[in-house]
Amino acid sequence: MREIRLQVHLAEDGLALFALWEKFREDYALPDVPEGFGEGGTMRSLMSQRDSVKVVFDQVGTPTYALDLAKVIFKIIEENLLAKTGIYHFSNEGAISWYDFAEAIRDLSNIECDVQPCHTEEFPTKAERPRPRFSVLDKTKIKATFGIRIPYWRDSLKDCINRLDETNDQ
């Protein structure tokens, strides 16, 4: 079994994971990735059930849309680029606080919920060590090595929400 190593920045711990392209998983140890943005579906659900939510404003990162990551992994396999080993950072382009990301999810989902900013110290977490305050990844290497264009997080969030809405309408 050959292993592909991709370091992926995910917005939250404990996301529901799903396997990508089962036919490749046996031959290549593909990473599991979150459904949609992971936290996008979780945050939508939470906002639908509550009048208000608190989200940290003092942590900045870049969301990762699973479909965008899946396309990159598929390109690497399909174009037989597996010999280009190494650690590659991947997340969508741009940077945003998790508070602003929650606001975008709410607005794009047309949910009425008061999103309130809070400090990291106010937000309960099970993690033994705190998340870094700035966790934006440099994706120069993966873009140059594999000749990819990475979509901006907001464009991918719109796509994710549209797909979630289509799934919910069925």
Name its key features.
11 strands; 16% strand; 6 helices; three-stranded mixed β-sheet; 170 residues; disordered N terminus
Q: How does this model look, in words?
A:
Helices cover 38% and strands 16% of the residues. The protein is built from six helices and eleven strands. It has helices at residues 22-25, 39-49, 66-78, 98-109, 140-146, 153-169, and strands spanning 2-3, 7-8, 17-18, 28-29, 33-34, 52-56, 60-61, 89-90, 96-97, 114-118, 134-135. The strands form five sheets. It has a three-stranded mixed sheet. A two-stranded parallel ribbon has the order 1-4. The protein starts with a strand and ends with a helix. 28% of the residues are buried.
Task: List segments where confidence is low: pLDDT < 50 over at least 5 consecutive residues.
Answer: 1-36
Beginning-to-end CA distance, first to last residue: 38 Å
Count of helical segments?
6
Structural class: alpha/beta
How many strand elements? Answer: 11
Coarse morphology:
globular
Order of helices and strands: EEEHEEHEEHEEHEEHH
Biggest sheet strand order reads: 9-7-11
Portion of residues within helices: 25-40%
Oligomer: single chain
If you average the pLDDT, what whole number results? 76
Rg estimate, integer Å: 17 Å
Summarize the biggest pleated sheet.
3 strands, mixed
User: What portion of residues belong to β-strands?
Assistant: 15-25%
List the helices and strands and how they pair.
Elements: E1 2-3, E2 7-8, E3 17-18, H1 22-25, E4 28-29, E5 33-34, H2 39-49, E6 52-56, E7 60-61, H3 66-78, E8 89-90, E9 96-97, H4 98-109, E10 114-118, E11 134-135, H5 140-146, H6 153-169
Helix pairs in contact: 2-4, 4-6
